[in-house]
Write a structure and sequence with these properties.
This protein has 269 residues and is an all-beta fold. It folds into 2 domains: 21-108 and 257-268, Immunoglobulins (Immunoglobulin-like); 118-253, Alpha-Beta Complex (Toxin - Anthrax Protective Antigen, domain 1). The chain contains no helices and 22 strands.
Length: 269
């Protein structure tokens, strides 16, 4: 055939936690940032993460999101810098508390690997025990049928830039709670006029690019359709960053999976 042979380029598939891996001295040991008097003396530890597809091909793009935490005598987040071509890099200095830590590196299910959104669990009772339906909702912008008595949304939210983020729940005919990074921002457990749309707000400082746990719990008040919307505003959002808007799918993730070898046992001295 005219032009044969042809040389097509086959792009790597989506990132897979099972084949993605990490390297660097920061996977084994690190020095603290100093004594209790904060006298800085340590060397910086580093970690490099390589995002690969399920066929063990290094990705030719960036954009994936990772949850990296040091868990031990204290817990703190480590931010990975996306340097492109499937490579993510971080340098970190732990706090002054020495000891044995676990460095957890997890790949988030995001819109890039057919994920994104939050896990939605709909229950047939008010105690979140009789599970009726599980699904992934791309956004929290939903009507709730009265067959369900309570709903829990869970997963991760990833802010764009560092700064205070303002969260808002718009709801009708339901009671709501919202926790971000374990902090309760909204807690409405008492009744109110159910025929009105209600707005509840809370603000928390967040670090850009760090995934934070998010949990929303909703309870229906009576045998009528309820509704709930999750909105935010904050640093780095498109347009006017103080304008409330529904949190999009690409800033939410329903779950995270540990990469190959995670968690890594680290000795901090």
């Amino acid at each position: 055939m005219l032009g044969s042979p042809f040389y097509p380029y086959v792009s790597p598939n989506v990132a897979d936690a099972r084949t993605s891996h990490a390297q660097g001295v920061g996977l084994v040991s690190a020095s603290t940032s100093g004594t209790v008097n904060h006298n800085i003396h340590s060397e910086i530890s580093n970690v490099t993460v390589y995002a690969k597809d399920r066929f063990n091909n290094l990705l030719n793009r960036g954009g994936d999101q990772f949850l990296v935490k040091l868990i031990g005598p204290t817990t703190f987040f480590v931010r990975l810098q996306d340097i492109g071509q499937g490579i993510y890099y971080s340098e970190y200095i732990p706090s002054y508390l020495p000891g044995t830590y676990d460095l957890s590196i997890e790949l988030l299910d995001t819109y890039l690997n057919n994920g994104g959104g939050l896990l939605c669990q709909l229950y047939l009772d008010y105690k979140f025990q009789k599970l009726g339906l599980t699904r992934i909702d791309p956004t929290v912008n939903t009507a709730i049928a009265p067959i369900y008595k309570s709903v829990r949304y869970s997963g991760y939210v990833v802010p764009v830039n560092t700064g205070p983020y303002h969260f808002q729940l718009l709801s009708k005919n339901v009671l709501t709670t919202l926790r971000v990074n374990g902090i309760t921002l909204i807690d409405i457990r008492e009744g109110f006029e159910t025929h009105l749309m209600r707005s509840n707000n809370g603000t928390v400082p967040l670090i850009g690019g760090i995934p934070y746990d998010i949990v929303i719990e909703v309870s229906l008040l009576k045998m009528e359709i309820g509704s709930v919307q999750l909105l935010w505003s904050g640093a780095g959002l498109p347009g006017i960053d103080s304008m409330m808007r529904i949190i999009p799918k690409n800033r939410l993730s329903p779950k995270a999976k540990g990469i190959n070898g995670s968690p890594f046992r680290i000795t901090i001295s």
